Fold:
Amino acid sequence: MTGSDDLPPSAPNVPTLLFIAYRHVENRVLAAVLAAGFQITLAQARIFQRIGPQGTRLTELAEQAQVTKQTASALVDQLQAAGYVERRPDPTDARARLVCISPAGADAWAVAEAELQRVHQEWVAHLGPRAWADLHRSLLALREITDPYA
Structure:
């Protein structure tokens, strides 16, 4: 028994469904950011969204985005030239630098967060509060065995 015996055989598998939902959110958020006048590409956004509140090292961004360090560096260079990020010394390692969100980047982040909240509200309305909470709890439990960055 797989737990999905009542589903049609043609139903997409769970990882595919998770990807479809993620892609929907990613497209919605990027469209909102662009509509607000920020200039950012999808590739840049995939790096940008991984920057932690205290900043993140370039090597960590590359690893999390599953791109080479050179690709991540080029994307961070573009984000820095656009004014969305800054490179700062890492207070824990004088040789390292952190990529940090700039004030203009924080403005773009706020637009993205607002759109993400709209999507969440739509999904809660569609699924119902209980199903949404069950989904959220289930995904948090899966994160325990799937997320090396947690």
